[in-house]
């Protein structure tokens, strides 16, 4: 492999994803290039991704504008390598490049605008190789091995054209005073993240057009001088101990985004944010050592919309600390701090416009709904991973909260009061997973007209009363998995969801032995896997037969499937009963499942199937019967189906089921008969299944294969014959498989 470390592997994944995305979105399909078939071409584009070339390929006879050669073995760009090309963008990511000859880009001097040299082996900025470029505005040199910037570095024409430069993820320890000032009339975006810088010369302030600067994850103890009109600044991941004093040199109304996260800032002083902050909308202070915030820290003239205080030692906020931010603050995050007591805590004003509030991973133990009226526009509240033991309603009958998304998982709630959430008419998503709720009573969740998602997973619920979930007309997901249910009845659901909504009910990973139906319940997807069911509950599925599309009952103890046990589920598309103890499947078990496309009853103990077992399943495409005890397949078992993927591996079949497979000969594409007892294949055995693309006969008892065994399978792409002891003329055996791309002969022995 070309890539030798984790960073390069990530680059490979990113580049491949980008390539696939570009190919998917492009108006014309990618085709192999005429002169370089391992590369892909379309109008004005050429792409060579992960092609192990050591020199540039032959160029197609088209006017290329965009060229991508990534993850190859290229080391040098020679002067003649790109002759005649007039590219606009050139991507040379994740190669082994370390040198560019002086006039390598001369043919594209007046056309190349974007050059990506990331993830290579450059040890310095290849300025001599860039000297001919007259219109380049975007240059990426991230993830190379650049340790220093030469004092005699010249940018040539780039002094007037280069607007964006990335030197991130190198080994740079210093920048020469003149290395950037020569770009002062053009450079607008500079990234020097993840280097080893501890100092920058004051001349950085002379780069007057610079608007976006990231010096994150270096070794600064104090901030360097800054250009006066900077708009976004990141000094995250350094060793700053205070808000940088150099911010005072920034013009009022300039900076909008400031990231000082993961430093060593311990205090925020009054009047810390002065005239320079009059346009500041986002300030990130997470991962510092701030313990408290006093009043008047944030001035009235600062129109901040987002403040992130997460991962600090914060335990106290002055009641008036946000009082100057009334009308502007929308987002406040304080995850993993040291708050405790009841929520919300006391404050006078300043949060009236707050729409997003995150205080997860703190130590709150009481949620007081009445006090939430002080946050009239709050839409999102995250209190995951606290110590909440109760939600107090008090006299809350006249309140109405705007919360749409409420996260209360990983707490210590043991009981849900009736009407707890009725004061949130806009509630869409409610997460109560990983608490200690033991039972649910009538009307625990009712009249929530906008609720889409409700999770009660991973509690200790053992019972649900009748009419627990009532009048939830838009519910899409109800998660009850990983509780202590032994019995579940649909009577707990009343006026839930709608036939036009895909409603998923997850009751998996419980101890359910009994499922009871009720009146019609519009369930679309039911996951009842990992329970203790010993039979398929007929009356249960009759309550949803006009809506159900997927049934998952795997990992139970079901012993047989009776006739018509799933009712007339006309829209059922997926049925999964693998990993049960099924030994008998009645002939009419699936008769009325006319929309069934995927059926999985693998890992059971089925010994035989009936004639025309699947004959009414005209849409069946995917059938898994592996890991059973089948000895043969009846003649018309697949009659009237459209099976494309058939897995019968790990059974006891000794005769190739040629007659049964002829019923699906025109549709069958994937056939797995591995780990059976098949001894013989004659010349005509695949005559009726000639459209196969993949055939697995691994670990059978094959002894003889004639020259023409696979002669009917001209389109076959994958063939596995491993683990057999075969006598054959191997020179001729694969002669009729011109499209074969994968052949496995592991543990294959020639007689």
From TrEMBL:
It comes from the Eukaryota. Transmembrane segments: none annotated. InterPro entries: Leu-rich_rpt (IPR001611), Leu-rich_rpt_typical-subtyp (IPR003591), LRR_dom_sf (IPR032675), SLRP (IPR050333). Keywords: Leucine-rich repeat, Repeat. SMART domains: LRR_BAC, LRR_SD22, LRR_TYP. This is Chaoptin. It comes from Papilio machaon (Old World swallowtail butterfly). The lineage of its organism: Eukaryota, Metazoa, Ecdysozoa, Arthropoda, Hexapoda.
